[in-house]
Amino acid sequence: MDRDAAEKRPTLMTLSDADLEALAALEVAHGWVTAGSFTRLAASLRAPETLVFGLVVDEAVVGYAAVDRQPFEAELQAVLVDARWRGRGLARRLLAEVVEQARAWGSERLLLEVRVGNASAIALYRGAGFEDDGIRRGYYPPRQAGAVREDARLMSLALA
Ligand SMILES: CC(C)(COP(=O)(O)OP(=O)(O)OC[C@H]1O[C@@H](n2cnc3c(N)ncnc32)[C@H](O)[C@@H]1OP(=O)(O)O)[C@@H](O)C(=O)NCCC(=O)NCCS
After folding, report:
1. Which ligand 1 atom is the nearest neighbour of the CA of 76?
2. Per the count of CB atoms within 10 A, which of 65, 85, 131, 145 is most buried?
3. CATH number of the domain enclosing 134
């Protein structure tokens, strides 16, 4: 990222199929997908019940959040900010957009799961008013071969 880009304010927009490569580049940099295995991302961008919000600078996606509409609730699927853009309130901005969208859908609650060890994400969610609903044991596959599965913390924000 050059200095000019670092000084820009990213534009918040709803992402579509056309943004698949830029979104995948962000995930590849974070290690969430490997180059060429974009099926999950492509499905999210196409699913009628999913909205993907992105923060874009010079056609690069520097952060995104995905939310699913369910019959009575909404579920946050992911929030990711480029490591070079963290600590500037971008995740908070994305989450506020997700909350606004869930309210617009008339969802009763916004739900999420997060790795119990993900302190920065848990602080983000608590700061936005999410409350703890319990632990789901062994929910996440191990990060490396030989490691144990990780528990999920279930959290929710009442909207109604
Ligand atoms: C978690 C993550 C999305 C935060 O993004 P960010 O843009 O840096 O967050 P923001 O600058 O908007 O910070 C908002 C709040 O989040 C919390 N937070 C963010 N980074 C933090 C850190 N390193 N340590 C502790 N709390 C942190 C704080 O409560 C912060 O509020 P504050 O600035 O008033 O203290 C980012 O670190 C990330 O992409 N992590 C990898 C992906 C991930 O784990 N996603 C969540 C699970 S899907």
Report:
1. 48
2. 65
3. 3.40.630.30
Range of the domain at 96: 3-158
Per-residue pLDDT, 63: 98
DSSP string, 99-158: HHHHHHHT-SEEEEEEETT-HHHHHHHHHTT-EEEEEEEEEEPPSSTTPPPEEEEEEEEE
The secondary element (H helix, E strand) that includes residue 81 is: strand 74-81
pLDDT tens digit sequence for 49-66: 999 999 999 999 999 999
User: Total domain count for the chain?
Assistant: 1
Q: Which of 124, 139, 151 to mutate to test the pocket of ligand 1 (most atoms within 8 A of CB)?
A: 124
Q: What is the pLDDT of residues 50-109, one digit of tens each?
A: 999 999 999 999 999 999 999 999 999 999 999 999 999 999 999 999 999 999 999 999
pTM above 0.90, yes or no: yes
Q: Compute, in angstroms, the gap from residue 128 CA to the centroid of ligand 1.
A: 11
